[in-house]
Specification:
Blueprint: H1 5-17, E1 20-21, H2 22-28, H3 36-48, E2 52-57, E3 60-65, H4 69-84, H5 89-99, H6 104-121
Antiparallel strand pairs: 1-3, 2-3
Length: 122
C-alpha cells in the first residue's frame, strides 16, 4: 500500500512519536503547520489504508502505526534497485557509498551491518 507524500510525512512523525495523540503530531509538524482538520483527514485515510490504528482513551485517540518503516520502505527500495540498477543491489550500494558523501564512521557502520549479515549467512 502506498501513501501520498503528505501521508508519508505524517507517517514519519508517527514512527518517531508513537504512540501519540493529535496534539503531539501537530506540535511535531514543521511550520507552516497544517490545520487540525487536514491532519485528521490524512489520519483517516491512513487508517482506511490499514497503515495506522488508534485506541480511544477518554475523548481522545492515541494513534500508532500498523506498519514498520522497514516494511513500508523495503518494497520501494527493492523496486528502485530493480528499475534503476538492473536488479543489482551491488550497483545500488556502489552508487550510494560513492555519492552519498558518507563519513568514515558511517562507512564503518555500514561495514558492520554487512559483516553481521555475512555471519547470518554462514
Amino acid at each position: 500500500m502506498s501513501l501520498s507524500p503528505a501521508e508519508e510525512q505524517l507517517m514519519k512523525h508517527l514512527w518517531e512519536l508513537e504512540p501519540c495523540f493529535m496534539k503531539d503530531l501537530l506540535e511535531a509538524l514543521p511550520e507552516p503547520k497544517p490545520a487540525k482538520t487536514t491532519v485528521a483527514t490524512l489520519l483517516k485515510r491512513m487508517i482506511d489504508k490499514g497503515m495506522v490504528g488508534y485506541r480511544t482513551l477518554g475523548n481522545s485517540r492515541q494513534y500508532f502505526t500498523k506498519v514498520s518503516k522497514e516494511a513500508y520502505f523495503g518494497p520501494q527500495v527493492r523496486g528502485l534497485i530493480s528499475d534503476f540498477f538492473a536488479d543489482s543491489p551491488t550497483a545500488f550500494a556502489s552508487l550510494f557509498t560513492a555519492d552519498a558523501e558518507l563519513s568514515r564512521s558511517q562507512l564503518e557502520e555500514l561495514q558492520q551491518l554487512i559483516d553481521d549479515q555475512l555471519k547470518k549467512k554462514k
